[in-house]
Design brief:
With about 250 residues, the protein is an alpha/beta fold. The chain has 9 helices and 10 strands. It comes from Aliidongia dinghuensis.
Length: about 250
């Protein structure tokens, strides 16, 4: 009988040694409806950021549960430890004080838009104080824009789609959002000819992945995988493919 149990125990140890390890699962959060970066098609998330995150997490040998929520909840979930990582983040002093930022993994552009025919000249954001600018709850745009003196902001929108709808309904004078996302949403909603981008960007720069301060080990693991994917050229391949597909991105210059 002891011999029988010995063989069973030995077989269990052998099985445990050779079976593949179960991949670690992380919870990552972002907005759902921010094309071309994240959107839902046939029940699954697709987009540039989905591809970029997928490549890095695959390299890190990590599986991910991707939850799509409004941006203010992205930050709440990170703050409460309900998510391991969130994206995309602009690097500001306030954001860096709250989270561990890893990256950059791509660049982004924030722009101002008004109704078609809008002609507004300004040198600094304070010059826009006679206008109401709608922004998304919780978004960080740039230190200059976020702290601009006298700039009147409507911060009731929880998504960029709602920004667009508020502009079309003329509830606000201007909206501030991602240039590429606003363009794609306007085309999807059939209102592309009814909006116009102002000639000055709110901000243009790198985008980062944010980890809670107590997830430093995961941040280091992600950082190492990101650098390997970058060194292998896979990151550039994904970005180049996206640029080829979006050569008609809105021309908004500084």
């Amino acid at each position: 009988m002891l011999k029988k149990y010995f063989y069973i125990f030995y077989a269990f140890l052998l099985y445990s040694a050779v079976r593949p390890a179960v991949a670690e699962t992380w919870t990552m959060v972002s907005e759902d409806d921010v094309p071309p970066f994240v959107s839902i098609e046939q029940g699954r998330k697709v987009g540039l950021d989905v591809d970029l995150m997928g490549a890095v997490l695959h390299e890190a040998k990590v599986e991910a549960q991707h939850r799509g929520v409004p941006w203010n909840r992205v930050m709440q979930m990170l703050d409460r430890g309900k998510a391991d990582l969130g994206f995309p983040f602009v690097d500001t002093p306030a954001i860096r004080a709250k989270y561990i930022l890893v990256g950059p993994y791509r660049n982004g552009r924030s722009a101002l838009a008004g109704v078609a025919g809008t002609r507004i000249e300004f040198k600094e954001f304070g010059d826009l104080k006679r206008f109401v600018v709608a922004t998304v709850q919780g978004y960080a745009y740039s230190p200059e824009f976020d702290t601009a003196t006298g700039l009147r902001k409507d911060q009731t929108a929880t998504s960029q789609l709602l920004l667009l709808k508020k502009l079309i309904a003329e509830r606000d004078d201007l909206i501030a959002g991602d240039a590429d996302t606003l363009k794609v949403l306007a085309e999807r909603e059939g209102v592309a000819r009814r909006i116009a981008f102002l000639p000055h960007l709110v901000e243009e720069g790198p985008r980062y992945v944010a980890f809670p301060k107590d997830r430093a080990d995961k941040a280091d693991q992600f950082r190492a995988a990101l650098e390997r994917v970058r060194a292998q050229g896979e990151l550039d391949q994904i970005l180049d493919h996206w640029r080829d597909q979006h050569a008609d991105a809105p021309q908004v210059g500084q």
